[in-house]
Automatic annotation (TrEMBL), chain A:
<comment type="similarity">
    <text>Belongs to the complex I LYR family.</text>
</comment>
<keyword id="KW-0496">Mitochondrion</keyword>
<dbReference type="GO" id="GO:0005743">
    <property type="term" value="C:mitochondrial inner membrane"/>
</dbReference>
<comment type="function">
    <text>Accessory subunit of the mitochondrial membrane respiratory chain NADH dehydrogenase (Complex I), that is believed to be not involved in catalysis. Complex I functions in the transfer of electrons from NADH to the respiratory chain. The immediate electron acceptor for the enzyme is believed to be ubiquinone.</text>
</comment>
<protein>
    <recommendedName>
        <fullName>NADH dehydrogenase [ubiquinone] 1 beta subcomplex subunit 9</fullName>
    </recommendedName>
</protein>
<comment type="subunit">
    <text>Mammalian complex I is composed of 45 different subunits.</text>
</comment>
<dbReference type="InterPro" id="IPR033034">
    <property type="entry name" value="NDUFB9"/>
</dbReference>
<keyword id="KW-0007">Acetylation</keyword>
<dbReference type="InterPro" id="IPR008011">
    <property type="entry name" value="Complex1_LYR_dom"/>
</dbReference>
TrEMBL record, chain B:
<keyword id="KW-0444">Lipid biosynthesis</keyword>
<feature type="compositionally biased region" description="Low complexity">
    <location>
        <begin position="29"/>
        <end position="41"/>
    </location>
</feature>
<dbReference type="InterPro" id="IPR036736">
    <property type="entry name" value="ACP-like_sf"/>
</dbReference>
<dbReference type="InterPro" id="IPR003231">
    <property type="entry name" value="ACP"/>
</dbReference>
<keyword id="KW-0275">Fatty acid biosynthesis</keyword>
<keyword id="KW-0597">Phosphoprotein</keyword>
<keyword id="KW-0809">Transit peptide</keyword>
<keyword id="KW-0596">Phosphopantetheine</keyword>
<keyword id="KW-0496">Mitochondrion</keyword>
């Protein structure tokens, strides 16, 4: 037991914990967006979001690193299974409908607005 | 060329003189100049800092786990408001929806306080 107690605050342990926490946050973010994709109506979304939050909260106090890793892997697998085929992406973002629709023209090209005026005008 | 311009000016002058009694209260600039596009809504897309601050604070105050009286532009979500890291994620998502932004995952992870959120949104070119 003392070996595990000594191992709780080493730098490697903390680094792993921090990495796991970041993975959990990113996973929660993606799962929440996915929930919004599936449940478009707001009241349904709030219910599903509460359930999702419950699932995350129930595993909040797990201390063992390997268990946490396994839980994260399982959660990511279930997220990949439930991903929406046509997610809502903001139009100008990559994957959205307006992405690269009107790219800025290359520099050095200038359009002369003379509205068809001819030289003998 | 100069004669043409002079003729045009002469021809167009009576029209300008007649509008003194009209309902128009603004002098048009030189005819032929397209510098004033009065009805164009181009370029008013940039949010002012006060607007950004106001909207960000409104979003944070409407979060059910937050006490609205403690919210200020400098507040830190986890330290000052006592929120969870998952609550942080939820607030960032709410800000994304409010400003119609798409924040990449790693950037969104770093938004930890109101100050950071305001800076990020204000400097984002596509904030709506």
């Amino acid at each position: 037991m003392s070996a595990t107690a000594a191992a709780t605050t080493t730098a490697g342990y903390l680094a792993r914990r921090a990495a796991q926490k970041e993975k959990v946050r990113i996973l929660y973010r993606r799962a929440l967006k996915d929930t919004l994709n599936w449940a478009v109506h707001r009241h349904l979304f709030y219910q599903d979001a509460s359930e999702l939050r419950e699932r995350f909260e129930s595993n909040k106090h797990v201390e063992d690193l390997d268990t946490v890793d396994r839980l994260i892997a399982d959660a990511e697998a279930s997220y990949n299974k439930w991903r929406h085929p046509d997610p809502y992406i903001v139009p100008w973002a990559p994957g959205g409908s307006k992405f690269t629709r009107n790219p800025t023209p290359p520099s050095g090209i200038e359009i002369i607005y003379d509205y068809g005026r001819e030289d003998n005008d | 060329m100069a004669m043409r311009a002079a003729i045009l000016r002469h021809i167009r002058l009576p029209a300008r003189a007649q509008t003194l009694a009209g309902p128009r209260s603004r002098e048009w600039s030189l005819p032929g100049s397209s510098a004033s596009r009065s009805m164009s809504s181009h370029g008013d897309d940039h949010l002012t800092k006060e607007e950004v601050v106001e909207r960000v604070l409104a979003v944070v105050k409407s979060f059910p786990k937050v006490d609205p009286a403690t919210v200020s532009p400098d507040v830190h979500f986890q330290n000052d408001l006592g929120l969870d890291s998952l609550d942080n994620v939820e607030i960032v998502m709410a800000l994304e929806e409010e400003f119609k932004l798409e924040i990449p995952d790693l950037e969104a992870d770093k938004i930890d306080s109101c100050r950071l959120a305001i800076e990020y949104i204000y400097n984002h070119p596509m904030a709506g």
